[in-house]
UniProtKB/TrEMBL annotation, chain A:
Residue span, PX domain: 37-158
A GO term from the CC aspect: early endosome
Keyword Protein transport: yes
Protein name in UniProt: Sorting nexin-30
Organism field: Xiphorhynchus elegans
Similarity-based family: Belongs to the sorting nexin family.
Automatic annotation (TrEMBL), chain B:
Family, per entry: Belongs to the sorting nexin family.
Pfam families: PX
Stretches assigned to the PX domain: 1-102
Keywords noted in UniProt: Protein transport, Transport
Gene Ontology CC terms: early endosome membrane; plasma membrane; SNARE complex
Keyword hit for DNA damage: no
Protein name: SNX4 protein
Annotated gene: Snx4
Annotated organism of origin: Xiphorhynchus elegans
Keyword Zinc tagged: no
One GO-annotated biological process of the protein: positive regulation of autophagosome assembly
Amino acid sequence: QDLSLPNGTPVDTSSPASSSSLLNRLQLDDDLDVETRDLFVTVDDPKKHVCTMETYITYRVTTKTTRAEFDLPEYSVRRRYQDFDWLRNKLEESQPTHLIPPLPEKFVVKGVVDRFSEEFVETRRKALDKFLKRITDHPVLSFNEHFNVFLTAKDLNAYKKQGMALLSKVGESVKYVTGGYKLRSRPLEFAAIGDYLDTFSLKLGTIDRIAQRIIKEQLEYLVELREYGPVYSTWGGLEVELSEPLEGVSACIGNCCTALEELSEDMTEEFLPVLREYILYAESMKNVLKKRDQVQAEYEAKLEAVALKKEDRPKVPTDVEKCQDRVECFNADLKADMERWQNNKRQDFRHLLMGMADKNIQYYEKVCVT
Amino acid sequence: SRAVESQSEGQCAPVDSLWRRYSEFELLRNYLSVTYPHIVVPPLPEKRADFVWHKLSADNMDPDFVERRRIGLENFLLRVASHPVLCQDKIFYSFLTQEGGWKEMVNETGFQLKADSRLKALNATFRVKNPDKRFTELKHYSDELQSVISHLLRVRARVADRLYGVYKVHGNYGRVFSEWSAIEKEMGDGLQSAGHHMDVYAASIDDILEEEEHYADQLKEYLFYAEALRAVCRKHELMQYDLEMAAQDLTSKKQQCEELATGTVRTFSLKGMTSKLFGQETPEQREAKIKILEEQIQEGEEQLKSKNLEGRDFVKSAWADIERFKEQKNHDLKEALISYAVMQISMCKKGIQVWTNAKECFSKM
């Protein structure tokens, strides 16, 4: 059976029956070593652009690859946040059955956060870099046409406009009907994933709050420490024999302050953003699950409609079959993505929490030395 | 007021123990301060809990506070017992050994009569003209010392409070990690054990801060010592003022005598004016006055001599004790600072331990 979507665009995967082969392909990719990777993407070098209408930041996106899909082995282009956002939307549209990695938050409250401060720009750059790397690592997403254009096109805006025109005519993206269809029964595994995601985001949210609270307490502690050190110095000025040891204590406390400051900074810049990223991830995953539910509901409804008609033809109409295929595709993709996501997440957290532990250790070691 | 067990120290008395109230300690100290004004008398620990950080109960009945006060009182007795002059005092000895009637014994010494009135002392401080410069400097120093130590103790209390907060919030991690581990497969064990370490971390602060209180107490002792230093300075000022007044009085009497004898009025005096206006006194009256004055002058000169001697003796012995005190202070505070540093290092080592353990748990996820 030639499987294609109603508008004629071929579906990404070859056929639902070969979803297992898809899984196999994915497994193979999992075993790939770094050395056998054939696509490398980096985001760096943020630059501020001042124009008459607005001021914004662009980042350099560098690509190195040996893939046939790319004309050249190396590319270097400049992209701004808008472009990343566009890419993500396009990926969601064209690969609705896959989990698309999250982007850092789009809107920042002006006045609270300085959009052009070094820390903010750097945090964002790191998140954007991670975003692209995750796509690069994905066996299906990395071959996406839009991704390719994003990495290579000199003038992305022209392509965007082109894409818009096409969209209005052909409707490149598959619009899944939302609403109207009620789900009969959710397969257990997806229900479990849903529950897991709920608890997961809850716990991460709590950890985020705790971490913020700790940072706040640490800063208040720092304030007091900053007053504490100089008092010893004052006392030292009063004494003769004791002045050296007192000055010594004062200096030590000063060092403690510095070390503590660094610890808090690290927590804010490295630890918290990753937590938030995973919360966003969980959100988008829940959306994908909802879509999956919708597809299944549609399929079941159509099946029911056919049964009610009580037609002679035992053959199920193509569109219903297509629905079924979609559903199974979806399920397979989702499962595959979930597994890889879990793996990655575990690595990420391991790295993250170890990092946190390390930082604390460093802090204490610094204090010890003084 | 509560009872405190007191053990007799050092002296060749049999080991004895009896009960003393805080008020009796106060009485002892008052007695010693009055009887030995040239000595920097060791201070008592605070009566009420001061410089507390919020977790430490400000309640005088709190067992931790009571214990620390007990240690403070013991320390006071040790200080007195190890002082070359004070340890020989009979009242002190009977404080340690005599069960009943000690209070009466102290009151019988009549030391309260010897005590200088506060007002007198204040007056002297303002009016003294030529105090020994060293004492003036010492007074200045003790004022500054008191100010800086109380500032230090206040800030330290705030620091302790904040640090407590930081540690305790980490305990929340323990709970969340535990809950989170319930929904994870491979990450579950790692998270669970890491959570346990977070709990340990949060709990460790209680002992750490309890130990730090000991350091604070050592500082407090010297805070109160500053007051004792000032007392010695005040005594000097009082004696000096007394001396100056006596000298002044003597000078004016001598002058009066001379005027009467020679009949010349050198300075304006109301008496002189009245006698001019209302007639001179008879030679017999004048003779009588001169005689009285000459007696007074002789008395005055002897008194001045002895006061001078007293004053010089006081300065000498006071300064000797002050030097002793300085050495004691430098030694004690150095040790206190060192032990504080050791405490901090041990706290950090514990921190390193906990986070290293946590890190290991994470690495096994």
